[in-house]
Amino acid sequence: MNQARRPLIAGNWKMNHGAASGVQLASDVARTTAAFGSVDVVVAPPFSALWKVADALQGSRVELSAQNMHPKASGAFTGEVAPGMLLEIGCKWVILGHSERRAMFGESDAVVAEKVKAAMDAGIRPIVCVGETLDERERGDTLNVVKRQLNAFLSIIADKPGFAAIAYEPVWAIGTGKVATTAEAQEVHAMIRASLAAIGPAMAEKTRILYGGSLSPKNADGLLREPDIDGGLIGGASLKAEDFSKVAETAQKIAGQRLVSRPLVSS
After folding, report:
1. Active-site residue 187, yes or no?
2. Percentage helix, strand, coil, to 5, in the chain?
3. 174 or 6: whose pLDDT is higher?
4. Any idea of the CA torsion for 17, 23, 26, 32, to the nearest 10 degrees?
5. Angle, alpha carbons 120-121-126 (nearest 5°)
6. What is the mean pLDDT of the chain?
7. Binning pLDDT at 50, 70 and 90, where does residue 267 land?
8. Per annotation, catalytic residue among 98, 100, 114, 132
9. C-alpha angle 40/64/1, rounded to 5°?
10. What is the pLDDT of residues 35-56, one digit of tens each?
11. Under a CB-based contact definition with an 8 Å cutoff, are residues 52 and 22 in contact?
12. Is 98 one of the catalytic residues?
């Protein structure tokens, strides 16, 4: 992590926790992370739990995210949710381009880019996911694949440096217990940072890049100490408040250690 960027720890609950258990989890997360003032904390419940969780988070430091959205403002799109609907509920963030959406629901780079633009236009902060499959990594295509995915939306987020976040999620490490080594993760994060720098120094300095492949309390310290890893998009470990808060606590500790001459600034 770099002291110029506030760590961001986001929990993607996926298709887990309805309203009742979601309220309990969100309340526990708010309580156990309340003291971590140098870290931004976000939770992303399923659509059905968003409204109740939003109420539970009132007055806390934890912000609300959706897991997906439709790019159109309204229309005959059965089962979909529009950006304005998320804003009305209280969402400040939305996860876009997750590998499960790409693989299971056929979301292309172009579709992801359309959603990113819609989120930016609506004032919702996107966490945009990129990452390679195991086959792509074994072929040595990791950087090419991630750069292709990046290029689809970088120009869209460039108008508001730091408003969006990018999550690198090696697909082979999601939910498998496998984790990229710190060197493997940092290599990809550094390439993403270089791509941001090619747009301008503000983009590189303000945009937070998260790691999203089986991040947990056991490996958080090593990963979050890398210079271009600014936090995590957490799946399994976000379903237990104790585990999630331990990752946030690690981010808080590292941020404090790196705070030397100037305070952390919000992006």
Report:
1. no
2. 45, 15, 40
3. 6
4. -120
5. 20
6. 94
7. very low
8. 98
9. 25
10. 999 999 999 999 999 999 999 9
11. yes
12. yes
